[in-house]
Amino acid sequence: MNLEKINKLDKKASNNSRLDFTRLGGALLFMMIALIYASAQTGSLAEPIHSAQLVIAALIGAYMAMNIGANDVANNMGPTVGSKTLTMAGALVVAAVFEMLGAVVAGGEVVDTVKSGIIDPALVGDGSLFVLIMMSSLLAGAIWLNVATFVGAPVSTTHSIVGALIGAGVAAGGIGIVHWDKLGGIVASWVLSPLIGGILAAIMLYGIKRTITYKKDMTRAASVVVPYLVALMVWAFSCYMLVKGLGKSFSLPLSQAAAWGAAVALVAYFPSRFFARKAITNRTNSKETVNSLFSLPLICSAALLSFAHGANDVANAIGPLAAINEALTMGFNAASEGSRVPLWIMLVGALGLAVGLALYGPKLIKTVGGEITELDKTRAYCIAMSAALTVILASQFGLPISTTHVAIGAIFGVGFLREYLKSSHSKMIDLIVEAHQGEDRSRMEAYVARFNAATLTNKALMLRAMKKKAEQKKLRQTAADPSFTKKERKVLKKVYQKELVKRSVVSKIVAAWVITVPVAAILSAMIFYVLRLIFW
């Protein structure tokens, strides 16, 4: 290795170290501000130990909020960045703004599940123990999210805090303190969430291929179909926001939300049709032109998903903190169900989401946006749509789901569909090559070119003819390409499939999903025992 390369490596390592130090400094600065801010809110507490507990809880809550911002927001922005619809900087700005808006505007109610849906507070019997359970859960969930972000695994923040509540609850009050029926729903969501998201995303992508990209005149087909897809997205996200994103401050039944969404979608359809037709004027007949029509819908979907995420998942950071604040300021038995979160706690959660996203979000955004499978705007649209539609379906049927698992499952679905279609196409080409075995190579290549340009109906007719021709020549057991053996083609096929969906990344993510609840539970129980020694 020459001196110039060594200097470049040294410079890169130095820049990375400086960046890591800056991120750590920014995170510590925010946590110190949260600590000072929380200290100013303890005037109503008579006991010094209660003041200390609230300040420490606020510090941990800020840490948790940052980790949610770093890990969970990638699910909303990853496909948008991976498809090159937004730059990383642009995605960070959009996500930070809408995450904070969602948290402050629509995230004002304490999620009762965080306080009493997983464990039974009545079985705790002591306010001090309840505070320690919540502090332990918050810290354990935050630490696990920090580890997951470090290794590049997007995990469910809800599952993290639920697992932590189970661990600390069992440590404090035994196995009977946990509502185990809730855990069954969580386990079911491990399977349901990615499965539903993946199936919906694959169906949507295949539908777009059949109606647009498989057509001879793709741009003309896109100008007709895309306005309907935009209207569908507007409907889905209108329902999503009314059912999920604004559910804490403004609630509508799904039937009414669907009707309002349809009205908004109808309004959106006509300008979408105008802009789609205008956008393809004097443009080439290519997938790039088709993809360009999805840019604005994708940016809007990412913003709305971030808003809904801020409204709902900020509770994983501030729910336990709000419960601690209630227990310390109002008394353990006086805390009420469904009470509003104080503004200072909301600000800790909202700002923590934005700070965590800005400092540590890019790593997970890159993983979600490009390391699992290659994304373009069309595929990213399908992922965003499947996330919204899955939440709507789950709300209607009462299915427990994780939005993180839905989004990642949708990416899996898109990637594996691409693998299947590529494999099917390869088999078709093999059949054509077999049928032309022994003939002039130029004729075979010309036929392949015509086949690739043909409509689906004509392709089926061409394949039927080639199959008959191959059978007549008795070449079904003959290698498709004389330059490769059958074994060599299998090896090449496996390599190609790995390039479409990276199995190592899939395995890492799935493993992180499976261990999230037990790891968070064990960690939380350990932290609870330590805190009890300190404060009890």
Explain the layout of strands and helices.
Blueprint: H1 3-39, H2 48-71, H3 74-82, H4 88-106, H5 112-117, H6 127-151, H7 157-173, H8 180-213, H9 218-245, H10 254-279, H11 287-292, H12 295-313, H13 315-329, H14 343-371, H15 377-397, H16 403-435, H17 441-453, H18 456-473, H19 486-500, H20 503-535
Helix pairs in contact: 1-2, 1-14, 2-6, 2-13, 2-14, 3-4, 3-14, 3-15, 4-12, 4-14, 6-7, 6-13, 6-20, 7-20, 8-9, 8-15, 8-16, 9-10, 9-12, 9-15, 12-15, 13-14, 15-16, 16-18
From the N-terminal CA to the C-terminal CA, the straight-line distance is 60 Å
Percentage of β-strand residues: under 5%
Helical content, roughly? over 70%
Number of strands: 0
Largest sheet: none
Low-confidence stretches: 475-484
Structural class: mainly alpha
Mean pLDDT, as a whole number? Answer: 80
Order of H and E elements: HHHHHHHHHHHHHHHHHHHH
Shape: elongated
- Tally of contiguous helical segments: 20
Calculate Rg over CA atoms.
27 Å
Summarize the structure in words.
With 536 residues, this protein is mainly α. The chain has 20 helices and no strands. The protein has helices spanning 3-39, 48-71, 74-82, 88-106, 112-117, 127-151, 157-173, 180-213, 218-245, 254-279, 287-292, 295-313, 315-329, 343-371, 377-397, 403-435, 441-453, 456-473, 486-500, 503-535. Mean pLDDT is 80; it is low at 475-484.
